[in-house]
Amino acid sequence: xxxxxxxxxxxxxxxxxxxxLDRGAEPGGIVAAVRDPxxxxxxxxxxxxxxxxxxxxxxxxxxAFEGAERLLLISSSAAGARIEQHLNVVxxxxxVRQLVYTSAAYADTVPxxxxxxxxxxxxxxxxxxxxxxxxxxxxxLENTxxxxxxALENxxxxxxxxxxxxxxxxxxxxxxxxxxxxxxxxxxxTTYELAxxxxxxxAELAAEVTRQSGREVVYRNLPQTxxxxxxxxxxxxxxxxxxxxxxxxxxxxxxxxxESGDLSRLIGRPTTTVADAVSAALQ
Length: 283
Ligand SMILES: NC(=O)c1ccc[n+]([C@@H]2O[C@H](COP(=O)([O-])OP(=O)(O)OC[C@H]3O[C@@H](n4cnc5c(N)ncnc54)[C@H](OP(=O)(O)O)[C@@H]3O)[C@@H](O)[C@H]2O)c1
Hints:
Order of helices and strands: EHEHEHEHEHEHHEHEHEHHHH
Helix content: 40-55%
Strand content: 15-25%
CATH architecture of the largest domain: 3-Layer(aba) Sandwich
Radius of gyration: 19 Å
Number of helices: 13
CATH class of the largest domain: Alpha Beta
CATH superfamily of the largest domain: NAD(P)-binding Rossmann-like Domain
Largest sheet: 7 strands, parallel
Number of domains: 2
CATH topology of the largest domain: Rossmann fold
Bound molecules: NADP nicotinamide-adenine-dinucleotide phosphate
């Protein structure tokens, strides 16, 4: 069986390749399809075949997908250019037995800007006639624990998500789910809402950081525009900062509280807890 993983040099992509190997996939049956093969020496060392696959250069995609039976399209990080890039992938994927796409939670029903490119990609995949599986990955736990150094320095976590609860899971959880889907026979035509089993508020996150670090950290809620401005001040591109703040406000309305249980069911274990994520981030 030949399994191709795009964006395999990204954080999620690398974890998927490792999860496939952990599940017993033959290294020689895995293709790491990457934008820049020079960054993939660690993957090549695992015995995985590395091929160039740049979403913006369709000719590389056709070559990279030759012989692919199952293809995981990991969504691009190029927000704003993703629809065109993903459509290039879908076109080059004609003929694969299963196209798996990492989408976003409630891509078609929560109409925030961040979901628009995922919704358009899902639509194109459904219209393509290729057997597909959609993995709607909710927020990564690592997004909420990535900046704990600054939170510990200032004693505060800032956001605009109010008292909303977020069902986040770790990248490793989502990667394992992708590996399960890519090595199982039963999931084409399915859209999974993948999310953590243990929803939490940002105040609960701050309390957990306080408990584990011994230093008091509180959550302070900001109005949407103020939060977007602050992110931009910290160097987040303005358009993306606005999208993140919009998403936070959607979280405050519990719009990213996902109770499907799909993720823990697929991986056969409970998802990573916020306590585990904080502990990993504080190492
Ligand atoms: N659920 C969430 O909370 C969440 C949060 C952030 C992002 N995401 C989405 O999930 C995706 C995977 O997450 P991640 O943590 O692995 O992100 P990441 O580490 O930033 O990886 C993004 C990957 O996209 C690749 N890429 C960008 N432009 C490309 C192009 N033109 N052709 C081929 N590959 C291209 C990058 O290639 P290089 O390795 O060459 O840079 C990288 O491998 C992200 O790209 C984003 O769409 C989800």
